Amino acid sequence: MSRQYIPLKDITIGTKGWTAKVIVEAKGMPRSSQCSPVKYQRMILRDSAGTKVQATIFESDIDKFSDVLTLYRTYYISNAVVKTILPQHRIANNDFQWHINSKTVVEEVTEEYSSISVLPHNFVPFSEFSKYMNSDVYVDVIGVVIDAHLTREIPTVNGPQKIQELLLVDQQLIPKIFTMWDQFIDNECAAIVKNIKTKPIIAAYRIRIVSFNGGSMSTKGSSTFVINPDIPEATRLKSWCVDNKAELEQLTLKKSYVGSSSSAIRAPAPHEIIEVKDIQCLEEKQTTFWLQAKISIPHLNQKYWYMACNKCYRRTNIDYKQTFDCVHCAEKQARAMPRCLLEVQLSDKTGALIATLFGENAEKFICCSAETLMQNSTEKHPLQLSSMWQLNLLINFLMQLIQIFKRQIQWRYSPTTEMKTAKLSTLIINSKMKCNSL
Predict the structure, then answer these.
(1) Is 29 exposed, middle or buried (0-12, 13-18, 19+ CB in 10 A)?
(2) How far apart are CA 147 and CA 358, in angstroms?
(3) CA–CA separation, 229 vs 27, rounded Å?
(4) What is the DSSP pairing of strand 52-58 with strand 152-154?
(5) Quick check: 6 and 21 in contact, CB under 8 A?
(6) d(CA 379, CA 376)
(7) Block means of pLDDT (10 residues each) for the chain, length 438 residues?
(8) Cα 180 from Cα 194, distance rounded (Å)
(9) What's the distance, Cα to Cα, between the start and end of the chain in Å?
(10) Contact status, residue 204 vs residue 122, Cβ threshold 8 Å
(11) Which residue in 208, 206, 209 sits closest to 222, CA to CA?
(12) Cβ-based neighbours of 322, under 8 Å, separated by 6 or more
């Protein structure tokens, strides 16, 4: 007689005496909350209908279930505590979550024909990272780890934090940086680094793609990892590693991927470059886009620079080159340095929008450093850009932009109407641009 169980979608807080048949689709390592010493372990369970539920084990119960609830195996589970979960804490599309404790009954399904199949994974190729950069969408990736940098501490708005960077490649031999934060360094990253000589394959789930180094990966609190997963995608990648062993060794030895972020920026394919009028049609998840447009300066009476912390670039009232304790990044020996800031208008044949250039991008465009800008302007005599530079406004620039205020500002595209604001993240300068030095 077959075992009786019910679908996950029918299990709510009021459901009594239920049993579910699920496969362990994702499982994180035990960790502690940032605001509490309580230890927990989180996983994603799925039934044969595709419904998922987030399950969590706490404290001493973690050890009890350490040898069960194995990734990609199927189990009968009953008597877990069902609770509601707030949307901001969900990592599965389900209004409910399970707490698995010492009273929960877990029994592995041993009959092979009764097991739930592992679904094909929707891994994002490295070549498509630009679609997801700096968006709210989390993605899954798979790659070969060929190098690991030492752990280091960096300043952030929440104070100093530890990071460790791994270098991954995919079957297109595209190297990408993967930044591990905080507890991921001591758990998952430590296990990866221990096996770095074997070039382990990692499958990473629910990670962010950021614009650093032309598109890199970064962990989030809900990210999970599987080292050398037993899935077809990993098997194919492992076989590819064997066939391309020499190329991987050369890439690791030459470290050609190490350098400035600008050198790692991938030029967009023609279909990735859009027109101003098309920005309003972008998908909600796409917060970065490539644009080819002319750049002009609509307001010449700008200040063009601001005094900033040399570590986090946040604004400060400290005098030039003075050291101070930065309240934003917690740097004890921060220095006040000028940083370029420029409001420009980007226009093509379909319309225009306002963009803000910061730092290096702004200096590239006006061919001048922030320090020179500061030295040639005062409050009584603001800088007159038109008298100092000759800008060739006929040149089209290729640029990557990050959308901001997407939900607050109405989208309109015409030089004579309200314009969308964007932050310029990457500017590719045409070598024919003309400028005069101060």
Answers:
(1) middle
(2) 32
(3) 12
(4) unpaired
(5) no
(6) 11
(7) 83 92 89 79 91 92 88 92 89 91 90 78 88 83 90 70 88 88 85 89 91 81 88 93 88 59 53 79 63 82 86 87 84 88 85 82 81 74 50 59 46 36 53 38
(8) 15
(9) 88
(10) no
(11) 206
(12) 335, 336
Position 355, amino acid: A
pTM above 0.85, yes or no: no
Are the C-beta atoms of residues 423 and 358 closer than 8 Å to each other? yes
Note whether 156 and 163 are within 8 A (CB): no
Residue with tokens 């194995």: 70
Tokens 């991008």: give the residue. 361
Q: Residue 58, exposed/middle/buried by CB under 10 A (0-12, 13-18, 19+)?
A: middle
Please state, as a whole number, how many other Cβ atoms lie within 10 Å of the Cβ of residue 362: 23
Listing DSSP states for 193-244 in one string gives HHTGGG--EEEEEEEEEESGGGSEEE--TT-EEEES-SSHHHHHHHHHHHHT
Strands (E), 271-359: 273-274, 288-296, 305-309, 323-324, 334-348, 351-358
What's the chain's length in residues? 438
Place of tokens 């010492």: 102
